[in-house]
Design a protein that fits this description.
- Helix content is 31%, strand content 29%.
- The protein has helices at residues 3-26, 65-72, 110-120, 174-188; strands at residues 77-83, 86-91, 99-105, 123-129, 132-141, 145-155, 158-165.
- A seven-stranded antiparallel beta sheet has the order 1-2-3-7-6-5-4, sandwiched between helices.
- The N and C termini lie far apart (63 Å).
């Protein structure tokens, strides 16, 4: 196809895009006055209450890859995700497991997370670590025992969560690991 032949197609496409946008643009009022030239009534928006945020957590909950490996006894961990609100570690960077993650939820209700865990896990119990309340969620597999343990700790309207999941029998209780990782994050909070 030559350039001369392609131009009409592009023009037709441009005309179609403008034609499709015209009704949308017409629906947007440009005059702030209502009927009779009077100012249009302001729309009411209910103000959301301001969230009471807890402390800031350092990247990855303030826990290094080396510390995680030492605590869990898992070697070959690679950080596969890292941002301001969470990190994930995988053995060799692959999906063969185990998986470890830290997530920090700002202005998010821990109750919603707990309700979700209660639907998916075998048990969800209250926990208190260094004076901070939260919950521990456990998933059990009939062949390997505890295959997953999540600990979520609340700080005002925020919470963080540590999680470890296995696909083979863990070397020891994974909840011991996430409880200790949670302690370390609590100590690192600023």
């Amino acid at each position: 196809m030559t350039a001369a032949m392609a131009r009409p197609r592009w023009r037709a496409l441009a005309i179609l895009v403008v034609a499709l946008q015209a009704p949308l643009l017409a629906a947007c009022p440009s005059d702030p006055t209502g009927p009779g030239g009077k100012p249009a009534p302001a729309t009411s928006t209910s103000a959301k209450p301001t969230a009471a945020h807890g402390p800031f957590f350092p990247e990855c909950g303030g826990v290094s890859e080396e510390t995680i490996a030492r605590l869990t006894g898992i070697s070959g961990l690679v950080t596969t995700a890292r941002n301001s609100v969470g990190c994930q570690w995988l053995v060799g960077g692959g999906i063969q497991g185990p998986w470890i993650s830290f997530s920090w939820f700002r202005g998010s209700p821990i109750g919603r997370e707990r309700a979700s865990e209660e639907r998916m896990r075998n048990t969800v119990d209250d926990i208190k670590i260094d004076g901070h309340s939260g919950f521990v969620a456990i998933a059990v597999d009939s062949k390997i025992g505890k295959r997953l343990c999540d600990v979520a700790i609340q700080y005002q309207d925020d919470f963080f969560e540590w999680s470890i999941q296995y696909i083979r029998k863990p070397p020891h209780d994974p909840c011991d690991d996430v409880i200790e990782l949670s302690r370390q994050s609590i100590a690192a909070a600023k």
